[in-house]
Amino acid sequence: MNEPPLNSLELPKPPAETRVVVAMSGGVDSSVVAGLLKRQGYDVIGVTLQLYDHGEATHRAGACCAGQDIYDARRVAEDLGIPHYVLDYERRFQEAVIDAFADSYLAGETPIPCVGCNQKIKFADLLQTARDLGADALATGHYIASRRTPDGGRALYRARDAERDQSYFLFATTPEQLDFLRFPLGDLTKPQTRELARDYGLAVAEKSDSQDICFVPTGRYSQVIERLRPGAAEAGDIVHVDGRQLGRHDGIIHFTIGQRRGIGVAVGEPLYVVALDAERRRVVVGPREALETRSVVLRDLNWIGGAPLQAGRYDLFAKVRSTRPPQPARLTVGEGAVEVELLAGEYGVSPGQACVLYESDEAQSRVLGGGWIATAQPTQVHPAAAVRAPAVAAAR
């Protein structure tokens, strides 16, 4: 018996019989996804999540998932003639993303809340809502590709447009989620997406892109943290990697690894923040070469590279920040520990960031997974920069 042909979403149904929920943020990307699928004849439902309402942020250019963007998403849905629902996820977003963001900063880390939002909200709660609506798939406006594998599963690949690729923020996606998710923009460039928006007559065609951290109205993270955790930021010492005490600070939340300006001390040479020691409330500074890192220990590794990950060493490619291309790396998996050696070295690597793993450094290469950086081992060992390492978890 012949299997039914697959539609453009690689599902065995005619488009008209395939229900797709589109996560509509009010921006041009997700709006084009809704328009594209509607034109292809799918049964499309738009869903927008109200994640926060911080007053001025609801009307600020570059904000998302707040007042103006909800209005824009609703208007696009009306123009396309599709049902549209707004779901209040403010409390869930506060608990799962914003509170975790504040706690991570207080621990001396540099968190990436966009990953947490995808992992805990969009690809968990929203995905379940899509299933409850009888959908066959949940589609988003992320620039990343998802394709079928020979064994019938699905794999993630970097977007064709390397400058727009969002794989760094989606490494925590599980195989079960991948089976249900679709990313129609993975093979498009941003100019092509905007051209489609104009072709569809969407009012958001020229709308500017949203900023990464949507719930920080002023762009000053410390203000948000101080409001969420009053009195949690404690003063401490600013220490040079050679052991000298150089001054005092008002709280480590005002600093990030790699920071050059605004440190508050001067010694006649350029200084960078090398480490943040939350336990001893210390900000450790030093020359740029003290920032070089060649090894990171990961926690909560998510492996989507196909065959189950076994103990051993693997040559692959890794990136420790979203704006950098994948670099040669070696993954070592042991009992209860996962380490990545960055063969060419990286600068300004901080705990709390993501380390995402790839099959190669070529365009549209496969995403193998990734994890959160628990500790970053400096190339040059400085006793003053030593920070107690937290416990790490093995791969899942």
UniProtKB/TrEMBL annotation:
Site (Interaction with tRNA): H142, Q353
Residues binding ATP, per UniProt: A23, M24, S25, G26, G27, V28, D29, S30, L49, G141
Every tRNA-specific 2-thiouridylase MnmA-like C-terminal domain range: 295-373
Domain tRNA-specific 2-thiouridylase MnmA-like central: 233-286
InterPro entries associated with the record: MnmA-like (IPR004506), MnmA-like_C (IPR046885), MnmA-like_central (IPR046884), MnmA-like_central_sf (IPR023382), Rossmann-like_a/b/a_fold (IPR014729)
Superkingdom assignment: Bacteria
Reaction(s) catalysed (UniProt annotation): S-sulfanyl-L-cysteinyl-[protein] + uridine(34) in tRNA + AH2 + ATP = 2-thiouridine(34) in tRNA + L-cysteinyl-[protein] + A + AMP + diphosphate + H(+)
GO molecular function, one term: ATP binding
Record Gene3D superfamilies: Adenine nucleotide alpha hydrolases-like domains, HUPs, Translation factors
Enzyme active site: C117, C214
Family: Belongs to the MnmA/TRMU family.
Function text: Catalyzes the 2-thiolation of uridine at the wobble position (U34) of tRNA, leading to the formation of s(2)U34.
HAMAP family: tRNA_thiouridyl_MnmA
Protein name: tRNA-specific 2-thiouridylase MnmA
Gene name of the encoded protein: mnmA
